[in-house]
Amino acid sequence: MVRLIDIGANLTDPMFVGNYRGKQKHESDLKLIVQRAFENNVKKIIVTGGSLSESKEALRLAREHPNLHCTVGVHPTRCSEFLENAEEYMNNLKEVCLDGMRDKKVVAVGEFGLDYDRLEFCPKDVQKIYFDRQFELVRKTKLPLFLHNRNTGQDFYDMIRRHRDDFKHGVVHSFTGSKEEAQQLLDLGLYIGINGCSLKTQENLEVVKMIPADQLMLETDAPWCDIRPTHAGYTHVKTTFPTKKVEKFVMGECVKGRNEPCTMMQVLEVVSGVRGEDMTELANMVYENTMKVFSFEE
User: Has 173 been labeled as part of a binding site?
Assistant: First the structure.
């Protein structure tokens, strides 16, 4: 039996309650989205927190279902939120972490890291300061890391190396870098998370082939990073879901262009196909990796 854990789903995104770019297009179908995932081999979902308010909402959602969990942290593009009162903001993040750890709902610090592709949202110097500051959460909680890295040269690697004694486990999610970047992270003992954004080009697929199975994790990054027919790995997709454009929304069906955790099967199909590995065996290895890192219980 295939068992999957989606390590990164942005279920707090307004799209999952029917709101697209500030316009309400349909009623919320979030409960059906979660149900659809669990009907398609997904055993657990980690809801991503990307700011203080989002982390609070992620924890609220996680408490609505026994197999939902969440992260707490601030995405690099949101780090300007620290600037008004950094100490108060940090203390509030710590409170959310400790609160959610009591019932084992908060399972990682993140999503945090660096993103130099979108400096219009937060300048580089601010990102670096508050990437560093969030290791206070790591030291306080001893939780694993859920990391974001985009086009940062050596800066991300150098920060992780500097803090390597602060944590036991961490995963760089939605990895789209080169073989060389991947190897640096693997050498630091990090795991690498793969989703549709990691499977777009032939170069991406070559990276996926070289990641050791015991350092691999899978995710959707929903509602983003769906696997599209234009992607290099698409030929391996076997599982499909009926979709309709948002303007023709039907309750109980997927929305075209809005990724969901149920598509974890597609990620597994592409990754196993590209690597030439048995799908069930690979799924079991990735499942064990994920259970261990996030201290999940069966």
Answer: yes
